[in-house]
Amino acid sequence: xxxxxxxxxxxxxxxxxxxxxxxxxxxxxxxxxxxxxxxxxxxxxxxxxxxxxxxxxxxxxxxxxxxxxxxxxxxxxxxxxxxxxxxxxxxxxxxxxxxxxxxxxxxxxxxxxxxxxxxxxxxxxxxxxxxxxxxxxxxxxxxxxxxxxxxxxxxxxxxxxxxxxxxxxxxxxxxxxxxxxxxxxxxxxxxxxxxxxxxxxxxxxxxxxxxxxxxxxxxxxxxxxxxxxxxxxxxxxxxxxxxxxxxxxxxxxxxxxxxxxxxxxxxxxxxxxxxxxxxxxxxxxxxxxxxxxxxxxxxxxxxxxxxxxxxxxxxxxxxxxxxxxxxxxxxxxxxxxxxxxxxxxxxxxxxxxxxxxxxxxxxxxxxxxxxxxxxxxxxxxxxxxxxxxxxxxxxxxxxxxxxxxxxxxxxxxxxxxxxxxxxxxxxxxxxxxxxxxxxxxxxxxxxxxxxxxxxxxxxxxxxxxxxxxxxxxxxxxxxxxxxxxxxxxxxxxxxxxxxxxxxxxxxxxxxxxxxxxxxxxxxxxxxxxxxxxxxxxxxxxxxxxxxxxxxxxxxxxxxxxxxxxxxxxxxxxxxxxxxxxxxxxxxxxxxxxxxxxxxxxxxxxxxxxxxxxxxxxxxxxxxxxxxxxxxxxxxxxxxxxxxxxxxxx
Length: 649
Prior knowledge:
Elements: E1 5-8, E2 16-19, H1 20-29, H2 31-41, H3 48-61, H4 94-111, E3 129-133, H5 138-148, H6 152-162, H7 168-177, H8 183-191, E4 215-219, H9 222-247, H10 267-272, H11 285-288, H12 307-318, E5 325-328, E6 342-349, E7 352-358, E8 362-368, E9 375-381, E10 392-398, E11 401-406, E12 413-417, E13 426-427, E14 439-440, E15 452-456, E16 459-462, E17 470-474, E18 485-486, H13 490-497, E19 511-523, E20 530-540, E21 547-554, E22 564-570, E23 583-589, E24 595-601, E25 605-612, E26 616-619, E27 622-627, E28 633-639, E29 644-645
Parallel strand pairs: 5-9, 17-19
Antiparallel strand pairs: 1-2, 3-4, 6-7, 7-8, 8-9, 10-11, 11-14, 12-13, 12-15, 15-16, 16-17, 17-18, 19-20, 20-21, 21-22, 23-24, 24-27, 25-26, 25-28, 28-29
Helix pairs in contact: 1-4, 2-3, 2-4, 3-4, 6-7, 6-8
């Protein structure tokens, strides 16, 4: 077949050919009728202006493409059209019959719901105007409503019957040729439309209400259009300026490694990301600083002058790319620095390059496995640190080992096992830059068999999986003269030996310090020995999110055995300087099999009352009552100042 021809069947026996010029002539001659046909088949819900433009687009796309057989929007250009001898009117034109089929097929396809991956067809563009046909009367409005309730094939069947004046057989054959699977159902749906009166000249479908070629024009929203124009102009100017700045030779930010592409530049951002503007503290500045902390740490490491490395670290901090692993402790923001940060360390550690930066609120740790390799970025909030809480920072974690960067005022370092209070500490070697040898971490998936703690001078710290180790203390919170002190002495180490394994409950909370306080001791019934009551409080760097545990520790059990946690509380001021008091209770089973309710309070407690499953009272800080297994009791305590105290929960 000639690629400029399409097949039609002018009668039941023979098949004729029409060329593209004949189809074009049919479209030009019968254009208003074809547009009206498409307008009536399209769903009314798309809006009158869009419906008008879509009808014109479908009528114009009915012209077959002369690109070869079977191409273009019509996958079946050689379909045989229904025809009868003696047909009059426009339908007698074979060219019109062909383009009418194409318009019908395109309109039915446009009336189907589109999938999310399908793009809407291109429409003629009319800017600044809304176009719609002239309004009709009540009869036209009723017909419009009736057509809106039909499906696309149903509207097509109605239009073919009422506008094209086709018989039932012709309409059914034409619908099938247009791709309607159930043409008979479409005709039945069209027959259900109430009969319209129409005019003297013909059907209501020929009225101006449904004429998309005789249109009225109105302006769009002028205020909104003006705002959109201004927004487009501003966006174009911004793109031109940004493109010009980023494209100037020698003015770029340099190689930024794993950093994401830059989106904006301003003087503040450039100063914060400029390695030359990094804050560098003198090596002995901590000696004369008014408050020792991270802000008085000098810049250390063998690559503190590596400008390319520092530029990559700053750029990744500001714009971490998709390949960068970013982590932050609870309550820590991971955004870019507000100004030039302070350089704490830059050097090689365990086959990786590490950079530590401090912006006064957070410490950022940047690590890369060689230039252009994998990168990681870790954040921790460490604001308002003093000499006691800024003794060390984590440099690397490799194969269950941790290396630390110690503070410049730390002269001696040891490793001590919390679960063996009588064992001698092991010296911890450090380099000239203050980098320690690897320290074994606590396995998270095995029972607690040991808990290494680092002793830097007189301070004892423990690793809780974050950038800064948590300081460990012992004593009464809020006591005159400073009751909380470093872990030193037999009683403090013995208490932490029974508490160390409970530090696992405090991982990932951004813990600043953990204090253990033995608030009471109690004799056990039936000559069962004695027990200690401890309250362990973990405070965070953000001053919220604290964790409080009340523990019951009978003496004489296996050495290093963790005490029983009888109650806990989150975000509670108990056992802290604001509320240095606590009340706790537990059910304890004697060797005889008898159960007892044991309760104890801090020094301010003068009386304890038990109600509920176990009833009784005591005058003093301790309570011992016989009980049954599984009994539940409510405890209340009276304080020396007349106040009341509830158990920790």
